[in-house]
Amino acid sequence: MRRAAAVALGGIALTLVAFLFDAAPLFVPGIAFTLLGLAAPAWISLAAGGATIHRTLLTDRVVEEEPLEASIEVSRGPWGLPGAELLDPLAGAPVPLHNWLSLISGGRTANIRVVARFSRRGHVMVEQPTLVVRDALELARSERRSAGNPAQLLVLPRTERVRWVGQDLGRTDPNGAQTAAEPVAASELDGLRPYRPGTPASRIHWPALARGAGLLERRMRADRDSFPLVVLDARCSGEPEHLDAAVRAAASLVLELAQRGGCGLLLPGERRAVEVERDLSAWPGVHARLALVEAAEEGQVPRLAPGSRLGRLFYVAAQPLDRLPPALVSGAQMAGVLVLPRPLATGVSQPTSFEVMGCRGFILGGRQRVPMRERRRPGAAIGVSR
User: Which CATH number does the domain 51-156 belong to among 2.60.40.10, 3.40.630.10, 1.10.287.130, 3.40.50.300?
Assistant: First the structure.
């Protein structure tokens, strides 16, 4: 508004000079500048006051690097929207609107479709859009922000299929857990789950079928104990990208193993693993919790509540390790797997078993230390078995 005030004052000054010196030619520009300096702010204020802005997000969750669509509706009042442009965090650059909402040739409403992408997981606050209105000479300017609080958005870690290089560590014996659990089924019943092809008839829950609940089977505690367990160690003394890579690798492993029969996930700071079964009913909640994982302190070593686990352990870390926590590997009957971001895995001598999201997995077998090609140095990862 300073420019408009300066123009108005200049017009008043010219008018006064015209009166003092009886200079008739100065009356016309003096009055014109005065009216221009007063009319421009009034017009811009009325135009901005009659405008409305409303943004709609199609979802409040989005995966990293996937498109998030938003629809923004801008409506003008009877005074038009001269020189209008829309500022929205999702759009990045200003969006010009003066042609669409012109008082002479434009419409009364404009709909803008915005597509945004987010490169990192976590909780994101998206501010409401702002409409900027200005005259052609930029004498006056007014901003109008959309009503409402900032939008809450959760960016989920992206996943990909695990690329098994050697042995497929995600493959399990489909009949192993059933055979072991049958003799003690009466004492180790742990609930019901959807029927899986090949399940013995003795494990089908016939009363549920009779009540119209569909074909269900009894789930035994031994089945859950034989699930693979993915442990995420969020301690990170290096680059934040290493923790992001570890979180993406953990999410990819959980999704892959769950689709093959089920798995458990031990999150940082927790003592009990979250079970994700083949139907993936628990996956949306687990995916959201992985998005909010933050770097843990050095002393926060993952711990599991007492109880034996017989399945394979996938230990995903964001920094080099000297050994896997004994409390996690003591109850396992299969060799553990250490998963590290690729830049931290150069010191591990074991062959790579799989790759996923910029991380590599290595089998740690036996009870001896993992051989190293070279002495440990900063940034070198040392794998140690149970």
Answer: 2.60.40.10
CB 316 within 8 A of CB 249: yes
Collapsing DSSP states into helix, strand and coil, what is residue 61? strand
Regarding pTM above 0.85, the answer is no
Q: Of 76-85, 208-217, 243-252, 336-345, which has the strongest mean pLDDT? A: 243-252
Whose CA is closest to 353, among 160, 171, 165, 170? 165
Chain centre distance of CA 263: 22
**pLDDT digit string (tens) for 239-292?**
999 999 999 999 999 999 999 888 999 999 888 889 898 889 999 999 999 999
DSSP 226: T
Q: How far apart are CA 115 and CA 27, in angstroms?
A: 53
Assess contact for 25 and 128: CB atoms under 8 A: no
Q: Which amino acid is at 105?
A: S
Paired with 95 in beta bridges are 86
Q: From CA 370, how far away is CA 144, in angstroms rounded?
A: 63
- Token pair 């000479």 is at which residue? 137
Residues 6+ apart with CB under 8 A from 12: 30, 34
Q: Which of 38, 28, 130, 42 is nearest to 84 (CA)?
A: 130
pLDDT > 90? residue 355: yes
How does the average pLDDT of the chain come out, rounded?
80
- List, in sequence order, every residue forming a beta bridge with 314; answer none if it has no partner: 230, 337
Compute the distance between CA of residue 264 and CA of residue 276 in angstroms, rounded to an integer: 6
- Give yes or no for a contact between 365 and 383, defined as CB atoms under 8 angstroms apart: no
